[in-house]
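Appendix B. Chain record.
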Amino acid sequence: MNDMNSTDMHRSAPTIHLVGAGPGDPELLTLKALRAIRQATLLLVDDLVGDGVLRYARRSARIVHVGKRGGCVSTPQAFIERLMAAEALNGERVVRLKGGDPFVFGRGGEEAAHLRALGLRVEVVNGITAGLAAATSIGVPLTHRDHAHGVIFVTGHARGDAAPLDWAALAAAAAQGLTLVIYMGIATVEAIEAGLLQGLPAATPVAIVQHASLPQQRHACCPLSALARTVAGEGLSSPAVIVVGDVAAAARELAAPRALADAGARRIA
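Structure tokens predicted for this chain:
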């Protein structure tokens, strides 16, 4: 009998699904994500996955919460990767369930590379990333023919051994007509504000959205020069997304009728 060739071996290898759970609202799940969740016998779940999403898991499925939230104690990444591989090789239908999209600040690239190096198959199921959901939830288009011809997604939370981001350079890019969408930026908001002010006007519109798409969502709008002060004054915290650019003014316009009706200058919703 001929030995199996590498193609046959790959086809017979277990498949692990890296699934984007979206920003939290279960109605924003894709059909493909829903199918994978329902078929899973083991789900490894990040902190930012909404409880409503897990209601679609089968009753017999094992659900293991593995953390992953900036500024908090997290499950070691190496442990998660070993667990995924071991359980898949043990016959489990493994789904790694991540908030947002697995390939947008979700370490999906690291996990996929590690699993494929072990000879396992990986299928990635995209999810709506928090930056897109946050902007849409407050009426902000990330691109607009009159205001922004592109968008930059960036994280404000760099690895401990990585060089800090050059916010002045990002500001220069944004000044050319690009929207900045900053994930995990609350902890470093003062440095972000100072860096961006090196290349953007102080009056540049900014919107901060906390818990995008969830019932407890809140947002605030302010000029760039008041970003850190607004975050502190309104008590905004992670998880939150910061949108910087002219398109963020749309959030102010959306809130204006209610603000007038309330005879106040409410910025928070």
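Further analysis of this model is presented in Appendix C.
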